[in-house]
């Protein structure tokens, strides 16, 4: 049984597309098909359902998946076990949500480059939903997201920490002088909210709808930094992770509103897709990112 065929199997399983897998691997499509057929003959079972242009793993394919990951990962480690971190090359492709980019990436990238000076990093800053799609399609090796805890059936969580999500206001806003704000008092207030795909924004709007409270977001955007800056300048409200505004709160530029009926937490998670083979370089990046998260998030 060839390691190459197992690696091809993992790529096709991740992308669920022979054409895309051949492009990613640099093989012809016929070569990819031949490798899968050879592997199926060796294991004595069909690994993929092929219905028209759609493919999916069979039960045998699902059962083979963890063994293939372990074998390919072990093979990669055997190739590199005599090499120091400084000697390893290659590229790691990492995704991160915008709100965590400035907080975590500067220190992580410096630490990683000092440890793996020959490894290139490709960094993708985008929304949680987009990054999850990229992980599912094998475009990214790992990502740092803020979301509800992800399903263990599809995702491997390398590290997670729960973070409060808070409503913030300009210090001159009338709510800033209050010890407590009732949830219904948020009705009609001018909110700056994150885009629809931001999980904490989705949860907040769901909670408000359940209480039949009408929100008045005058702006939806992707940048937590811009949302914080707008609240610092005008009497707007916004809902943001505490880590994104902690410094401004400590400096007195914004206030965190106390709303007993609204206790919202989200998980900052370093995740991989379950189909992903973890190389020493990817593992090293996640280790450095985890260290920085423990200090900053």
TrEMBL record:
InterPro entries: HTH-type_LysR_regulators, LysR_HTH_N, LysR_subst-bd, WH-like_DNA-bd_sf, WH_DNA-bd_sf. GO terms for cellular component: cytosol. One of its GO terms (molecular function) is DNA binding. It comes from the Bacteria. Pfam families: HTH_1, LysR_substrate. The keyword Transcription regulation applies. PROSITE patterns: HTH_LYSR (PS50931). Keywords: DNA-binding, Transcription, Transcription regulation. Residues 1-58 form the HTH lysR-type domain. Signal peptide: none annotated. Belongs to the LysR transcriptional regulatory family. This is DNA-binding transcriptional LysR family regulator. It comes from Sedimentibacter saalensis.
